Structure formats: C-alpha cells, structure tokens
Amino acid sequence: MKHRWRSIFTLSTGGLALLYWRLRLTGAPSAFASADNPTSRDPSILTRFYTFTYLPVFNFFLLIYPFQLSFDWSMDSIPRITTIFDIRNLYSLVFYAIISKVTWKALSHELRIQKEIKEKYYKKQNNKIKQKWSYNCKPYNRRQDCSERKSIIPHKENASSKRFICPCNGCKHTLTEDHTNVCRAVNNNNTMMHHSTCICPLAHGKYKPHNTTKYVYSSPQVALLLFTAFMVLPFVPASNILFYVGFVVAERVLYIPSVGFCFLLGLGAGTLTRNWRRYKRRSRIFMIALLITLLVMSGATLRRNLDWRDEESLFRSALHINPPKGKV
After folding, report:
1. Alpha-carbon distance 224 to 102, whole Å?
2. CA dihedral over 62, 68, 74, 77, signed as positive or negative
3. Residue 175: strand pairing partners
4. CB within 8 Å of 142: residues ≥ 6 apart
5. Can you tell me the distance from the alpha carbon of 103 to that of 224, in angstroms, rounded to the nearest whole number?
6. Burial of 202 by CB count in 10 Å (0-12 exposed, 13-18 middle, 19+ buried)?
7. Domain boundaries in the chain?
8. What's the CA angle centered on 70, arms 68 and 76, to 5 degrees?
9. Which residues span the membrane (predicted)?
10. Which residues, including other chains, have CB under 8 Å from residue 278's CB and lie 6 or more apart?
11. Burial status of residue 187 (CB atoms within 10 A of its CB: 0-12, 13-18, 19 or more)
12. What is the CB neighbour count within 10 angstroms for residue 63?
C-alpha cells in the first residue's frame, strides 16, 4: 500500500507539472469569436451550467449514433438551455446518474474483492504457521523421516532440478539450494547450513513444484474503470468545464474517447458471450447483431468520406445540421 501511494503521488505530481508547463507555453487564453461558442458569452450562469452539462451527453450520443455529423457546430447549432424545465436537463441527469452508479459499483466491488483476497492470504499464512509449529512439535525420528521423504520423491524424468536429502539437524526440514532466513530465525539457527532452502513436504502434505508462471490480475471491474477513464479524461479539456474553448461541439476531440468507447463495447461483448457454450443460441444472435452493426457503421463511414470530396459537398452535408451557418 505504501508503494502504491508513492506511485500515485509521483504520477499526480508529474501530471500537474506537465499541465503547468503546457499552460505556460500557451500563455494567455486564445481569443475566439462569440459566434464560435455563444454559450460562453451568455450572461446567465444557469444557462451556461445547463448547456455545458448537456454537451457531454450530446457527444456521447454522437458516439452511439454517429449519423448526424457536421464539420462545424458553431453558432446556435445546439440551442442553449435557458430553463430548468428543458427536457434535455433530464437527459443530463440520467446520464450522470448512470455513470456515477456504474463507477461506484465497480469501485466498491473491486475494493471488496481486494479485501477478501487479503483476508484469504492472511488466513492461509496463519494456517501455514500453525501447521509448521504443530509439525515441529512432534518428536523427530530421523530414520523414519528419511524413508518417508524418499517415498514422495518424484521419478527422475519428472523430477525437479532441486535434489531432496535428509532434513537438517537445526530445523528438521528438507535441504535444497537456498536456506531461508525465516526458518533460521524461527528455529534459533543462525548458521548457514549448506546454503540450502528449508522445504518440508511432510508439513504441506505433498511436494508441489514451484510455479514460475507470472500471475496476471484480470478483473472486469478494473477494465471497466480503466476504459471509462480512457473515454472521459481526454474529453475533459474540451468540455468547457475547466476553461472555455472556441467551439460548442467538435468531432475531432472524440477520436481518443472513441478508443475507450470501443474498448467498453469489446468488454460488454466479451461479458455477454462468456458462457457461449452454455447459451449458444443467445450468443449467436448477439454476434450476428454485432456483425450487422459493424457493417452498417462501415457503410456510414464510406458514405461520410464522400462528403469530404470537395467544399461544396461538405457544406451541403452540414446545412440540415447547422442552418445558421448555411445562411452566413
């Protein structure tokens, strides 16, 4: 835990230093016309609050349904929210409530799992200590112990590189290449005995070879939090929350958040098809629907590329999205 907090402190300090350096390089905030972001010049603080809290909902809707795209979202392409009774405030409330609920459940579940893992680990260690002391308290018979150890030695073709011999005189455990300091301290044995490790197969029931495979911790809750952060954090500088920017909505700022959104879709697809052998019909229906969605989105991408052939087709594609821009 100490090393974890040290890493968090180091990353936070480095992030703040990079942010300060970035702000020093840019100097004064760049000036932009009021038509580029009309909400930022609105005198009512409630209007700015309602509208800017709705803009992330609108951007998320563009990720889900990217069929109303425009190269320019300036002026009043998105009408400002001037009253609390606007239906879009309900969309914002539901959106932030869902994100908060999902984040809190994932975080609390992960903390509970980590607590259970620690409790199991400490319980296992305590059982090992009790088992070890109960074994050491038994009267020691060297001849019987050696015969019992020979009976559990694996065959030569399956044997480990470590060679078992009779136990040491100090701790009465099996000798291998390295000797642990814990064993010497527990058994009041301060001398190095053949530089060997203390391993007692009789105390553990049977011999288990050492597993050198690295343990990779995988948790859907951690993946959910990571992908959500990957989608939210890159969008924060363009959300008009920290400072005002020269646009209302810009599709270019959704490139990096769309990566986190795709990761979330992959996580959801993997969760729904986890037991595909048990629910083959449901998994097949889901995979067919996913394939159809990918084909439709690919076709929409190709169609959108045709709008960028020249300036005239690009402006015509945005007339129904932003009529005031067409009048200008």
Report:
1. 9
2. negative
3. 198
4. 166, 167
5. 8
6. middle
7. 34-113+226-327, 153-206
8. 95
9. 49-67, 222-247, 253-273, 285-302
10. none
11. middle
12. 16
**Amino acid symbol at 274:** R
Structure tokens at 293: 């969605």
pTM: 0.64
Q: What is the pLDDT of residues 288-322, one digit of tens each?
A: 998 999 999 999 989 888 888 888 888 888 887 77
Query: In which residue are the tokens 């050198």 written?
Result: 212
Q: Looking at beta carbons, which pairs linking 55-60 to residues 24 or more positions away fall under 8 Å?
A: 55/239, 55/240, 55/248, 55/249, 56/95, 56/235, 56/239, 57/88, 57/91, 57/92, 57/95, 58/249, 59/235, 59/249, 59/253, 59/254, 59/257, 60/95
Residue type, 144: Q
Q: Please state the φ and ψ torsions of residue 64, each to the nearest 5 degrees.
A: -80, -40
CA angle 154, 156, 161 (to 5 degrees): 85
DSSP-assigned letter for residue 236? G
The DSSP line for 51-104 is: HHHHHHHHHHHHHH-TTS--S---TTSS----STT-HHHHHHHHHHHHHHHHHH
Range 215-250 burial, b when 16+ CB lie within 10 A, else e = eeeeeebebbbebbebbbebbeebbbeeebbebbbb
Q: 199 in helix, strand or coil?
A: strand
Q: Output the six-digit token pair for 97.
A: 């409530």
pLDDT tens digits, 105-146: 888 888 888 788 777 777 777 776 666 555 555 554 555 555
Burial of 134 from C-beta contacts in 10 A (0-12 / 13-18 / 19+): exposed
Neighbours of 77 (CB within 10 A): 17
Look at residue 198 and give its three-state secondary structure: strand
Handedness of CA 199, 204, 210, 215 (dihedral sign): negative
